[in-house]
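Course assignment 3, question 2. Fill in each field.
Student: A.L.
Task: Predict the tertiary structure for the chain below.
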Amino acid sequence: MIGQLIRHTKVFSCSSHPSLASSIASSLSCPLVPVNLGTFSNGETKIAPLSSVGHGEHCIVVQSAQTNDQLMETLLTIQACKQVPGTFVSAVLPWLPYTRSDKTEGRNYPIGSRLVCNMLEGAGADHVVTVDLHSPQIEGFFSIPFSHLQTTALLAGELKGRDVVLVSPDAGAMKKVSALSELTGLPFALIHKERCPESGGISRMTLVGDVRGRGAVIVDDMADTCGTILKAAQLLVDQGGAATVEAVLTHGILSGGAVTAIEREDCLTSMCVSNSLSQTSNMNLCRKLSTFDITGLILQELTKFPC
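Answer field:
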């Protein structure tokens, strides 16, 4: 059955995560086509013509865009695939950019995630696949088939049977932690976070729950600068009395000095993130960092769609 589904499929590897694209293509036993990227003299993005696209094929465009240039590269690749009649384009973006801009926060405030959704549809995507959205309401911004994949069951299989307490670092992660607790039978705790109205920085964190003498596992959908994660880890050790603190996250953005901070701070024993974003260079710099694979999760969804 799988062979019939993938017979006319090609995987197009954009610049951000070639190893994930290669893994998807290899698992589907279909051709991997690197996208030849370039720039005009004024800095605008260009891609070489995709001459390998055939009539009626299923084109899987793989990209985890962290920069505006990578987003533009994704849009151009999708549009290039749609120039050929009858193609069906699945845009696989495990990390969907601008998901933190999911609502208006005042008069004339833009909603970046809705704009990205509109751009993907305008470029010609027929189907979008992403993993653990920062805000589930973004699903409603799409009018095309949209697959929001969850890592909860995958993580439950890894955590079940361990003597640990699941910890939500803020209210936003509580739904995921609660679902994991139900699947694994593990207890959970919550850290209540308050921000300073003027600066937006964290003014106070309060632990609700008991982690004393036990291993604590912080669970969240993403880590950017890791400020919240590291402060939560310090709180769990200093005030909660946790024996060890790990962090399990879906998207390891790890910008700025995050990787250095993770390696330096003793309060955090380890951090495990998915391969939604490439972590090769980060893992070379940080011994505490490891990854779990979401390729199988993506493959299950891709084979449901025609090619």
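Instructor remarks: The chain has ten helices and 15 strands. Residues 1-7 have pLDDT under 50 and may be disordered.
Grade: pending
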